[in-house]
Design brief:
This protein is of the alpha/beta class. It has a single domain, classed as Vaccinia Virus protein VP39 (Rossmann fold), CATH 3.40.50. It is 29% helix and 24% strand. Strands 1, 2, 3, 4, 5, 6, 7 and 8 form an 8-stranded mixed sheet that branches. It is globular, with a radius of gyration of 16 Å. It starts with 9 loop residues before the first helix and ends in a 10-residue tail after the last strand.
């Protein structure tokens, strides 16, 4: 991917004007949305989706406005004071959905906040009928991990969200999902989420689209 188109769906543009209370439509959000839009569009769109760790629900609403998701349920462990889509709250232990019941499960900068990222990823794999999309972080060195901790604190402190620092080291999460029966269909790394000086940290960002192997009995026929 050589460039990221950051334009928003026309029918959602008006909503940006009143969105400052929920964190604002920052350039980081626009670029992240554009990355997810590109990956999900490559699937042809999906009928049902879960946004796990949805926060204020902006990403779910934006992707539905873009016509890429038929319905999207935002899921989180805590409700923010202001939301654009009301989240379904759960205990963070097990997603309240049946096995292979949702076409797409995705998480944006959420898995590293889980008490046990591996457990959450396996639960996403359990619920997903076909696709998983992850936007998150990865590091190779101790210095990279510290940079992520600093950025995480800056980005989440205003929302009173903890930053336990459970980031992916190397390709550990990708390998875990492969073991759960998924293949990497698209991997963008470094992911161009930042520009300017912060662009130096894009090597710590990744976006990936996974698809369930056709040999897995839970994968629906095309």
């Amino acid at each position: 991917m050589n460039a990221v188109e950051t334009s928003m769906p026309k029918d959602f543009a008006e909503g940006e004007r009143g969105f400052a209370f929920a964190g604002g439509v920052t350039d980081y959000r626009r670029r992240t949305f554009a990355l997810l839009r590109s990956l999900i569009a490559s699937t042809g769109g999906v009928a049902t989706a879960l946004d796990i760790g949805a926060g204020d629900g902006w990403m779910a609403k934006s992707l539905m406005a873009a016509g890429l998701l038929g319905t999207c349920t935002p899921v989180d462990v805590k409700r923010r004071s202001h939301v654009v889509l009301e989240p379904l709250l759960y205990d963070g232990e097990r997603l309240p959905f049946d096995d292979s019941s949702i076409d797409l499960c995705y998480a944006v900068d959420a898995v590293h906040h889980a008490a046990d990222p591996s457990r959450l990823l396996r639960d996403m794999a359990r619920v997903s009928r076909r696709f998983i999309v992850l936007k998150d972080h990865r590091y190779e060195s101790r210095a990279g991990a510290w940079v992520l901790r600093i950025l995480d604190e800056i980005g989440n402190r205003r929302f009173s969200i903890g930053s336990p620092g459970h980031y992916q080291r190397g390709s550990a999460w990708l390998d875990l999902l492969r073991a759960e029966g998924f293949v990497v269909r698209t991997l963008i790394h470094p992911a161009p989420c930042h520009v300017g000086l912060l662009g130096l940290t894009n090597r710590l960002q990744f976006v990936a689209l996974f698809e369930r192997c056709e040999s897995d009995g839970r994968n629906p026929s095309r």
